[in-house]
Design a protein that fits this description.
The protein is mainly alpha-helical. It has a domain of 54 residues: Ubiquinol-cytochrome C reductase hinge domain (Helix Hairpins). Helix content is 58%, strand content 0%. It has three helices and no strands. The longest helix is centred in the C-terminal third of the chain and has 22 residues.
């Protein structure tokens, strides 16, 4: 009778837990979304989405507001990303 067999791959420690990898891009995007300029553009995007969603017949979309928000966030990220990469 065998209880709890473990398979150990050559080169891997037996009891060491695998470290969770964190994407630095996602971390920086979250931090940049909290900056003053990004918060402002995100508020404009949300107002547009609310306005467009409340109308049944409209040709308006929120493309401009979405691009403004993404541009502001990516601009912030671009200045910080490569300093955190090893």
């Amino acid at each position: 009778m065998v209880f709890g067999q473990k398979t150990v791959v050559k080169g891997e420690p037996e009891d060491e837990e695998e470290e969770e990898m964190v994407d630095p891009l996602e971390t920086l995007r979250q931090k940049c979304e909290e900056t003053k300029h990004c918060v402002h553009t995100q508020e404009r995007l949300e107002l547009c989405e609310t306005r467009v969603g409340s109308r049944s017949q409209t040709q308006e979309d929120c493309t401009e507001e979405l691009f403004d928000f993404l541009h502001a966030r990516d601009h912030c990220v671009s200045h910080k990303l490569f300093h955190s990469i090893k």
